[in-house]
Design a protein that fits this description.
The complex is a heterodimer.
Chain A (H helix, E strand, L loop, with lengths): L1 H15 L13 E9 H19 L2 H7 L3 H19 L10 E5 L5 E5 L1 H10 L1 E10 L3 E10 L5
Antiparallel strand pairs in A: 1-5, 2-3, 4-5
Helix pairs in contact in A: 2-4
Chain B lengths: L2 H15 L22 H15 L10 H4 L2 H11 L5
The chains are: A alpha+beta, B mainly alpha.
Chain lengths: 153, 86
């Protein structure tokens, strides 16, 4: 843990000297991504584009678990975006359905990757992804932590 | 379709789906739409509406922020999908 904190402190100090946060730091022991989604936007997408929207963004398993629940779809979209941010700044070039957010034990969610997302994670040396999602009446937010190195080996 | 006509249609789609806090007509073709206030989810609605408008389908390798971050980027992507020079 101490080593992780030291690494994080060093990374912060180095990052402060750099012109852009979009540069991905390979020495960083962990990365974080966060996203916030308005439920109204999800509702509008469902009403306007229906099944085509669902199929472009969500995997078959996600669609099965979420159904037409705007709240659940919003949480998963936020988790996908937070994952992209944790994996590489603003444009990691990942299709949304290459990041799958599924129900896990005890009401938690878990992230499964495929295709381009899986290759990016391997390239980044990320060994574990943790996600937390929260909802309010009109908003859903997600926080993703990507851990590198030997922590889960 | 001329570039002006293409960009006018793109601006119309952005006006209807991007949820921008500013008038889309006030944005330059190179201006960053995300910096102007378009959310990542709004970009999904923009993408789907562009597919309807131009009768195209964006492949997975085009579903990325850089394609949708400016009017010129969107215009180039549509031209490519329609087999026209940007």
């Amino acid at each position: 843990m101490e080593q992780a904190i030291r690494g994080f402190t060093t990374w912060l100090a180095r990052r402060a000297e750099r012109p852009s946060y979009l540069n991905y730091d390979r020495e960083m022991p962990m990365y974080v991504g966060i996203d916030l989604v308005c439920l109204d936007e999800i509702r509008e997408s469902l009403e306007t584009h229906g099944d085509r929207y669902l199929r472009r963004i969500y995997t078959a398993r996600e669609r099965l678990q979420c159904g037409q629940s705007v709240r659940r779809l919003a949480g998963r979209f936020a988790a996908k975006e937070a994952t992209m941010k944790a994996l590489g700044g603003s444009d990691p070039q990942l299709p949304w359905n290459s990041i799958e957010v599924l129900d896990a034990h005890g009401g938690a969610l878990a992230i499964t990757l495929n295709g381009a997302a899986q290759r990016l994670v391997e390239n980044r040396g990320v060994r574990n992804l943790s996600v937390s999602v929260t909802h309010r009446r009109s908003l859903a937010a997600a926080l993703v932590l990507a851990e590198r190195g030997r922590c889960n080996e | 379709m001329s570039n002006n006509g293409l960009n006018a249609d793109i601006r119309r789609v952005l006006g209807e789906h991007a949820r921008l806090p500013v008038d889309v007509q006030s944005l330059s073709e190179e201006q960053d739409l995300f910096a102007a206030g378009m959310s990542s989810h709004a970009s999904v609605n923009v993408m789907l509406a562009l597919e309807d408008t131009f009768d195209i389908e964006f492949p997975d390798n085009m579903l990325k922020r850089s394609v949708f971050e400016s009017i010129s980027g969107i215009s180039a992507a549509i031209a490519e999908l329609q087999g026209q020079p940007a």
